[in-house]
C-alpha cells in the first residue's frame, strides 16, 4: 500500500518532448507543463481508486490489477490497457485507440517521491511527485 496517499507533481523531465511525440499541440503542451496534477491513490487488495485533479480536469479512475480498462488522457487521447504490480512497481501497458501505438507507464516509490515514467515511440519522460 506504499502508493496510498495524496501525491502532488513537483517537477518533470522531458515531458514537453513526450507530449509533442504524442501529438499534443504547443498550446496544450504549455498548459500541460503547469497542470498542478494531484493524485489521490487508494489501494484495496488488487483494486485501485485514483482521484486525478489538475487545472484541466477532475476524474476518478478505478481499476483492478491485470484487468483491461479504458482511459482518456487530459488531451482526449483514448487508451485501453492494464496496470500490473511487479514487485513494488506499478507497470502500465496501454494501446492508443486512434493509432494502435503502445504507451508504457511505470509508477515507483523512490525515497519520499513517487516517480511516474512514460515511454512512447522511444521517448521517455518522468514526473516526480511528493506526498502532500
UniProtKB/TrEMBL annotation:
Per the record, the domain of life is Eukaryota
One annotated GO biological process:
intestinal lipid absorption
For whether the record's keyword set contains Protease, the answer is: no
Q: Which GO terms describe its molecular function?
A: long-chain fatty acid binding
**The entry's keywords:** Transport
**Residue ranges constituting the Cytosolic fatty-acid binding proteins domain according to the UniProt record:** 5-22
Report the sequence similarity comment from the record. Belongs to the calycin superfamily. Fatty-acid binding protein (FABP) family.
Q: What is this protein identified as?
A: Fatty acid binding protein 2
Q: Which gene encodes it?
A: FABP2
